[in-house]
Write a structure and sequence with these properties.
This protein is of the alpha+beta class. It has two helices and six strands; from the N terminus they run H-E-E-E-E-E-E-H. It has helices at 2-15, 111-122; strands at residues 26-33, 39-45, 50-59, 67-78, 84-92, 95-99. A six-stranded antiparallel beta sheet has the order 1-2-3-4-5-6, with no helix packed on it. A hairpin with a 4-residue loop joins strand 2 (39-45) and strand 3 (50-59). The longest helix is centred in the N-terminal third of the chain and has 14 residues, at 2-15. The protein is extended, with a radius of gyration of 24 Å.
């Protein structure tokens, strides 16, 4: 029971305001929405954070009603150690795909796997 009371006090203490943090000012902001479903927006804040995105409607399947929104954009911010982190991304019929110098990449495919895939493709099995 004492543990629950201590845990409750800890939760209240952690939920309390942490100092005098002021909101970060937005120094620029633009947005556009068009009748055809296309859109774009971007903003930049005083701390150097930047966000931009644009998108449009696209037929993503065989039926006329298979319409989806495809988007692309980027965002950047400064990490606690002072490095500017930038992510570029797309979201379309192939899913969400992000790129950035800080993101991990898979190791190269082993040569025997490359050869096996080539053989399977040549045999018409892929």
């Amino acid at each position: 029971m004492k543990f629950i009371i201590v845990l409750a006090f800890l939760a209240v203490a952690l939920a309390a305001p942490q100092g005098d943090k002021k909101p970060i000012e937005i120094i620029s902001s633009n947005s556009e929405m068009n009748a055809d479903g296309s859109y774009s927006f971007n903003f930049e804040s005083a701390d150097g954070t930047k966000v931009s995105e644009s998108g449009n409607q696209k037929k993503v399947g065989p039926k006329d009603e298979d319409i989806g929104t495809v988007s692309k954009g980027s965002y950047s911010y400064t990490s606690p150690d002072g490095v500017v982190i930038t992510v570029n991304w797309t979201a379309d019929e192939n899913g969400f795909q992000a790129t950035g110098d800080h993101l991990p990449t898979p190791p190269p495919m082993p040569e025997h796997v490359v050869k096996m895939l080539a053989d399977l493709k040549a045999a018409g099995l892929l």
